[in-house]
Task: inverse folding
């Protein structure tokens, strides 16, 4: 029988990869889109026309009740959130409302629509919850110490999920995902900012890369690998929480150096990187590195794309995109791409 999945945050990076994966598994995929994201919804309609789009907002319980009652999915993946940590310092209430309370609204909507507890729910928890880390590497038992309004909201949402699982026997699983990037990453995130600006530098369109703290270290994986873990979590009879990570950590500086090296630019950091305090955060997460051995053991999940390959994919994608935007001959760009691909 065809399974039906509802995805919130369908217009984001993970929403796209997950929808693609579920469609390949013959799911009927329903994506929830809010009014502010309508334009992105229209472009998603071109890329993935099979996805049925419904209007709903994590800030509004009535709309969530309606969407769930109308669709009655087998699985719900809650990827919707204000997901940019930097912005959360500027809009802490909005972040708490969507990223934190929005999850509680979803859980309540499911609880009343599904008394038989048939719906399986996935919550996008985050490694930002570890914040000022208490141990390294971080696993499912590492205490949380969030360092941003975003992290605080994710901790609230995570605890709410565990509570609804324990209190009401709901099938709720949380994936504690470490940073995951790719060709569809938003430009406000550091990896995409780096690869798109370096692509511009290579093509002579830009001459500086303006960043904040480049010493921060992250465990960076590929988004396409991580959505597979989300799906696997909901295929388990027993709901649970899992850390999803590569187990390797690199600084922002390492990311920049790797990207410059790939396009054969020496001393790229000295020549092009400028620091601007506006990109610094009031409190920073200095180091993240995850231990995903539980996911490996129980879900049989391991990441496939390594760090260098990730940087390569993002850089090639941005070179092609920038060439298209600026009407640069693709033949010229192909030579650079061949160099990266060696
Ligand atoms: N965005 C951004 N822009 N970050 C910068 C910049 C800049 O110009 N310069 C330095 N950084 C540093 C940030 O201070 C942070 O330490 C690091 O680069 C990564 O920042 P982001 O790419 O914005 O990601 P994040 O780690 O804060 O959060 C991402 O990963 C979380 C999982 O740990 C987001 O995807 C979250 O939604 C996700 O939960």
Result:
């Amino acid at each position: 029988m065809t399974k039906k999945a509802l995805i919130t945050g369908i217009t984001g990076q993970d929403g796209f990869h997950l929808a693609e994966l579920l469609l390949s598994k013959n799911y009927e995929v329903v994506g929830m889109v809010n009014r502010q994201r309508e334009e992105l919804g229209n472009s998603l309609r071109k890329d993935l026309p099979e996805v049925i789009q419904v209007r709903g907002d994590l800030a509004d319980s009535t709309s969530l009740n309606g969407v769930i009652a109308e669709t009655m999915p087998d699985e719900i993946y809650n990827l919707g959130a204000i997901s940019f940590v930097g912005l959360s310092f500027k809009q802490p209430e909005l972040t708490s409302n969507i990223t934190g309370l929005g999850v509680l609204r979803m859980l309540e909507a499911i609880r009343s629509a599904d008394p038989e507890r048939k719906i399986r729910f996935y919550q996008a928890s985050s490694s930002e919850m570890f914040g000022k880390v208490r141990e390294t590497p971080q696993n499912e038992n590492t205490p949380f110490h969030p360092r941003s309004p975003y992290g605080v909201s994710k901790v609230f949402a995570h605890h709410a999920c565990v509570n609804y699982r324990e209190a009401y026997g709901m099938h709720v699983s949380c994936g504690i995902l470490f940073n995951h990037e790719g060709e569809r990453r938003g430009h406000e995130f550091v990896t995409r900012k780096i690869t798109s600006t370096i692509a511009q530098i290579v093509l002579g369109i830009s001459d500086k890369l303006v960043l904040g703290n480049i010493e921060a270290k992250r465990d960076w994986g590929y988004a396409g690998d991580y959505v597979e873990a989300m799906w696997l979590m909901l295929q388990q009879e027993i709901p649970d929480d899992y850390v999803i990570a590569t187990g390797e950590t690199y600084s922002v500086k390492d990311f920049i150096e790797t990207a410059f090296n790939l396009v054969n630019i020496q001393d790229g950091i000295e020549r092009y990187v400028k620091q601007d305090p506006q990109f610094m955060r009031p409190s920073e997460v200095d180091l993240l590195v995850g231990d995903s051995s539980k996911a490996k053991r129980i879900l049989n999940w391991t990441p496939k794309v390594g760090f260098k390959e990730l940087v390569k994919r993002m850089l090639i994608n941005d070179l092609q995109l920038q060439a298209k935007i600026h009407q640069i001959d693709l033949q010229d760009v192909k030579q650079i791409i061949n160099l990266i691909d060696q």
